[in-house]
Prior knowledge:
Layout: H1 7-10, H2 13-24, H3 36-41, H4 48-61, H5 67-74, H6 81-85, H7 92-106, H8 111-123, H9 127-140, H10 144-147, H11 154-162, E1 177-179, E2 187-192, H12 197-200, H13 202-214, E3 217-221, H14 230-233, H15 238-257, E4 263-266, H16 269-275, H17 278-281, H18 289-297, E5 299-301, H19 302-309, E6 321-324, H20 328-333, H21 339-346, E7 350-353, H22 367-370, H23 372-387, E8 393-396, H24 399-406, E9 413-415, H25 416-423, H26 434-438
Parallel strand pairs: 2-3, 2-4, 4-5, 6-7, 6-8, 8-9
Antiparallel strand pairs: 1-3
Helix pairs in contact: 2-7, 4-7, 13-25, 15-18
Amino acid sequence: MQTNFTEEQLKDPRIAEANGILRNCVHCGFCTATCPTYVLLGDELDSPRGRIYLIKEMLESGKPATPEVVKHVDRCLSCLSCMTTCPASVNYMHLVDEARTYIENTYNRPLMDRLLRNVLTFVLPEPGRFRASLVMARLGKPFAGLLGKIPGLRPVGAMLALAPGKLPPADPLGAPGTYPADGERKARVVLMTGCAQGILQPSINAATIRFLNRIGVEVIVPAAMGCCGALTHHMGKEEDALARARTNVDAWTAEMDGAGLDAIIINASGCGTTVKDYGHMLRFDDSYADKARRTSDITKDITEFLTAFGAGNMSAPKPMTVAYHSACSMQHGQKIKVEPRNLLLAAGFDVRDVPEGHICCGSAGTYNILQPEIAGRLRDRKVANIEKTNPDVIATGNIGCMTQIASGCGIPVVHTIELLDWASGGPQPEALSPSRRAS
């Protein structure tokens, strides 16, 4: 793609980097076939190729973002399916991240949109605030359907609809501390417990710790660790995201330089994609660039780590058909495609591939709140494809996907590690209990 940045603009390393990404695009349009919003809406501007043109014109002009550009960039899920199918290796992820930061810094959003985004930024990354907000959301949940019909309040309705009717109790496994290996210690890792996941589904962290301890891995949960920054990063709130990244880099570097670490384990693939990108996110920060690269280099999804380290003996407690949903952040963001499925097969589960598995479920961080209509259509499409496999349970590696799919489906949804933990001697996942399924 031909670009027309001035020499003065190209002195800015961020613009120079965007220019390089744009010039890699060859206009082929392969990305349109796998882009969820283009598949649904059929609008070229809601395809990666169309958004690339809009971003190019916006950055070249140096002027504030226009409502038209904002509309189509906001509709992007950042599912990164386009990067999987792109023959020219266009780094769309970094380009759209730059566009979102530019929009945040130059565009004055409508009042309700601005307020909602500020609320999400304030609440979601902070577990205490998030828990309190979910408790209060119970009062408004009965009105979710009504609010969802009012154009300006649809995101509020979507937010209330997604809130669980009740929260699970906190699990002591996952609190800050050291969880020693059973028997001889073979490895030492940090587990990132996540901000939303630790509140919505603490059993995921507990299952991860149990499993790792069982195979000889000591697990550290640093008290200084916080949100990975993905939620604010994808809303263009760069300084907030970078501050959160620095906090985590400091916490993990202290462990690396202390007793040492073999890996930083992530069990929410949306977080994993962002943490693996810390080296890029902090590339202009002389004090953190090297440390961030070090942490990114040893970050592993839990299934990625178990595949390399060894998962020990597993045996499915009973015959069970599992529909494996590969989160976009897993298959497209981290290029982890076969590891979770192979682990489930090794554990004795009958694993089924979901038709159109490359298409997003519509969760995408805060997307199912900010773009509820599109997210709802994608969820229904995903659920219909899952149901074609006639599964007993759905397994996935991302809390956002779990929440999204469960909101439109009666089939139990669990994290992959919960099934693996069960197959290696841990408790049955709560979602599979008869009382839970009956309710």
